[in-house]
Amino acid sequence: MTDIQNLEDIKQMVNSFYGKVQQDDFIGPIFNEKIQNRWPDHLEKMYGFWQTVLLDVRAYSGSPFPPHATLPIQKEHFERWMEIFTQNIDEQFAGPIADEAKWRAGKMAEMFNYKIEYFRNANQKPLT
Prior knowledge:
Layout: H1 7-23, H2 28-35, H3 39-55, H4 75-92, H5 96-122
Helix pairs in contact: 1-2, 1-3, 1-4, 3-5, 4-5
């Protein structure tokens, strides 16, 4: 098994991950309801995001949090997302960049969950 090295690896990682997400009984319906027929656009955006984060290629700009801010999700949804993400990486890649992907995904899930909870508890709308 090799590490994540280029855009083709990023595409493989993203496509296989979101393929599993779409089929998942727990988080799949939330993603499918939100994204609907815009999966190709979402995947393109994710290629750019992970290319920027993992390969230091400036392929993404924007703020990843706002689209997630109002989703009907709880900590358990983030845990399931991470479970699928980690398993997906471990099935295909091994090395420091693969480890970095899992670490960054975990930090992102933690931060998104925290921010969503904060806005819910404060009964405020997040800035978009």
